[in-house]
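Worked example 3 (structure in, sequence out).
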């Protein structure tokens, strides 16, 4: 079991803040010393909100295993092990995982198995428009996938504590490691119940930060759909709750019984079985009959009516509006429109998805990975865009028709790169394989960044070079982070620059890159 801790008591990194941070009024403890939150602000150049300042100065030390007065064990949820200020102020903080973890992520609370709730720095242009500079994302170490769990750490905690009572609770956003000694899943309490808000300092804090939690009848929250509906009604944890509801709407009795061995025994391609179970309407009757005979499952297990595509469309539409940088919302909305024959709307949705990172597609949990499991297709959206644009019935006169372009932001491929050019990388790759595609694609974005006259566009291109498909070989990330840090400095993105600098130091210390 891995519980994060400080590898050193050296907090001298806190003294490396810029002049503006150091000359600003300093938050101090009762004894007059500079507060932990102020030291973190000085180091990272980020003005953290009051919630996080309170978290670091008073609460984060009260997790399990702490020797602090008032510390108690938590009896619910997965994420319990806080990255302490001492850890984050050390020269190479243990919780930061360069280069798999994006350079605008700062780990806050882990599950002891490698996964983290992270503070994510939002694109400065988006922050200027919305007033929201950060959110909290769950980051999965097993592949680098991430998903926003709320705008505040308290909201992410609430989702973590509620997940066991929500639809499809076994389809978690992270699959915790197994503890071989006890044969139990690490970090997951058997019956998480955020009912007694006075039982722990963290839960009291969550209730204070989110007064709407008191409007939910937790004691009778035995209906997952009702609880999800109430949370959406009170605007709590909207993005991850909608993800759970989409997973539930796509579920079927058959899907849970399929495995590669069944495909092998029946002489079928596993990829085909995944595709048919993703949308039971596409399964040929003769295939359903063979499966029914082999698995001895009732006919209703193959009934397409189990899947509620109207709900998928509703939730995907909401996600596309609230989280334009998440691929899975655009992917699913595009698929719904495509399957209904609305090629123009499908093309627009898939074009938006194409510019989102593969680390935001939730493909395994949503069972869309069949589209990228063969033929070297890098993105779900690319497979369908190829079909649409090559079809004789396509309304796209040019290669970039029906692409409703959004303003540039970090985490989405800038509009400077045309869609046709992206498809040449994301579509079916050459015999050299996916590794070669990532290498060539990353280099293309680095070259484009070098030619850009806008430092902000350069920073977004360089971010995509490392964290859209990923980059190869590993040593590329050293150069890439150096360039990204410089672009952030040129763009005046001081928080992004300094947080990425900590990632860069970790890459050098751990891999000598």
């Amino acid at each position: 079991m891995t519980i994060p801790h400080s590898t050193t008591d050296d907090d001298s990194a806190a003294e490396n803040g810029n002049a503006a941070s150091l000359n600003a009024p300093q938050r101090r403890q009762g004894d007059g010393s500079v507060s932990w939150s102020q030291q973190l602000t000085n180091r990272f150049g980020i003005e953290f909100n009051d919630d996080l300042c309170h978290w670091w100065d008073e609460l984060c030390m009260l997790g399990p295993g702490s020797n602090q007065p008032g510390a108690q064990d938590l009896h619910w949820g997965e994420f319990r092990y806080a990255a302490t200020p001492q850890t984050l102020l050390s020269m190479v903080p243990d919780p930061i995982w360069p280069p798999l973890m994006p350079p605008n992520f700062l780990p806050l609370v882990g599950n002891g198995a490698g996964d983290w709730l992270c503070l994510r720095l939002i694109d400065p242009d988006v922050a200027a428009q919305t007033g929201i500079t950060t959110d909290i994302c769950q980051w999965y170490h097993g592949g680098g996938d991430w998903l926003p769990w709320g705008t505040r750490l308290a909201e992410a905690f609430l989702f973590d504590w509620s997940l066991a009572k929500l639809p499809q609770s076994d389809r978690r956003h992270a699959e915790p490691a197994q503890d071989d000694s006890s044969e139990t899943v690490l970090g997951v309490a058997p019956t998480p119940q955020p009912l007694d808000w006075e039982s722990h300092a963290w839960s009291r804090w969550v209730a204070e930060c989110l007064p709407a939690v008191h409007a939910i009848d937790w004691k009778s929250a035995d209906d997952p759909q009702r609880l999800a509906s109430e949370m959406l009604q009170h605007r709590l944890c909207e993005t991850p709750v909608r993800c759970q509801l989409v997973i539930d709407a796509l579920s079927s009795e058959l899907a849970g019984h399929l495995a590669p061995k069944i495909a092998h025994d029946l002489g079928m391609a596993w990829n085909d079985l995944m595709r048919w179970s993703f949308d039971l309407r596409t399964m040929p009757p003769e295939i359903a009959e063979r499966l029914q005979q082999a698995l001895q499952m009732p006919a209703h297990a193959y009934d397409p009516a189990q899947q509620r595509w109207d709900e998928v469309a509703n939730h995907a539409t909401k996600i596309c509006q609230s989280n334009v940088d998440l691929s899975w919302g655009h992917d699913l909305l595009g698929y719904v429109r495509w399957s209904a024959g609305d090629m123009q709307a499908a093309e627009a949705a898939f074009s938006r998805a194409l510019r989102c990172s593969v680390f935001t597609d939730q493909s395994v949990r949503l069972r869309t990975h069949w589209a990228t499991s063969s033929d070297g297709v890098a993105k779900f959206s690319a497979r369908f865009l190829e079909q649409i644009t090559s079809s004789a019935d396509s309304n796209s006169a040019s290669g970039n028709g029906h692409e409703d372009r959004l303003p540039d932001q970090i985490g989405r491929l800038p509009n400077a790169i045309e869609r046709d050019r992206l498809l040449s990388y994301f579509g079916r790759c050459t015999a050299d394989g996916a590794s070669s595609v990532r290498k060539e694609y990353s280099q293309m974005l680095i070259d484009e960044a070098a030619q850009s006259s806008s430092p902000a566009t350069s920073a977004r291109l360089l971010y995509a070079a490392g964290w859209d498909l990923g980059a190869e070989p590993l040593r590329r990330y050293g150069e890439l982070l150096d360039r990204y840090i410089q672009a952030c400095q040129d763009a005046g993105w001081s928080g992004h620059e300094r947080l990425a600098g900590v990632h860069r130091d970790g890459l050098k210390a751990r891999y000598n890159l």
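Notes: The beta strands are 81-82, 105-110, 116-121, 134-139, 146-150, 178-179, 184-185. The longest helix spans residues 434-451.
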